[in-house]
Write a structure and sequence with these properties.
alpha/beta, 6-stranded mixed sheet, 6 strands, disordered C terminus
Length: about 220
């Protein structure tokens, strides 16, 4: 079996474009190859939490207490040499009205991030890239959004490398939980100017691409 590259994806912020919504929407990818070196430590720590009395089916940064959060970031920090982190930053107020529909905004932003990540030479040399996202949270539109993601990526991404995209619950992959933690840290840096945990992963952050750089608005 040829080499596979894995991309785990997560997002922070919300899709509320009103004044009460988040200022930013952040998509983050964490690229890894097997063996996933952090998994054993995370698995062991999950059982530590259970024995302590914390019932953790998964690690989720915004829901975990500060002690758990600090420990998980420490574990991730031990294995940054096996990860590459890339983020796409969206300042939502610059998003044109026609792009704000759920079935268009998320797929297109995801396409821009993955187009950049997949064009790297390391992916071109892999036999296949396996892209794993968390289950689409909007249940009433899940199938429509997943279909839009598939169609959008088919139009935006290069023919090589070969890739496939899977939508799995984050409980099923530590890679998705790592992506959740990394995305939360990057989001906090932009949304709240809080770099506390961003500093712990910064050495593995290869890019933070502002889709509306230089004030350009995405109107179409």
């Amino acid at each position: 079996m040829g080499e596979r590259v894995y991309i785990f994806l997560d997002e922070s912020g919300n899709l509320d474009f009103s004044s009460s919504g988040s200022r930013y929407f952040v998509l983050t990818s964490v690229t890894m190859r097997r063996p996933f070196q952090a998994n054993a430590e995370l698995d062991n720590y999950k059982y530590d939490c259970m024995e302590y009395g914390l019932e953790r089916e998964r690690f989720h940064c915004s829901e975990d207490n500060q002690h758990v959060r600090q420990r998980v970031f420490g574990i991730i920090g031990n294995h940054l040499d096996n990860m590459r982190i890339d983020s796409l930053i969206v300042e939502k107020s610059k998003t044109g009205p026609s792009l704000r529909a759920e079935t268009r905004f998320y797929p297109e932003m995801l396409g821009h991030l993955l187009k950049y990540v997949l064009n790297r030479q390391s992916h071109a040399q892999a036999e296949e890239t396996v892209i794993v996202t968390d289950t689409i949270p909007l249940k009433r539109r899940r199938r429509a959004i997943e279909r839009a993601v598939k169609l959008t990526l088919a139009n935006m991404l290069p023919q090589r490398p070969r890739y496939r995209i899977l939508h799995h619950d984050s409980r099923s992959h530590y890679g998705l939980q790592v992506a959740d933690y990394c995305c939360w840290a990057i989001f906090r840096q932009h949304e709240h100017k809080d770099a506390t945990h961003y500093s712990e992963i910064k050495s593995a952050v290869w890019s933070e691409f502002d889709i509306f750089r230089r004030g350009t608005r995405y109107w179409y």
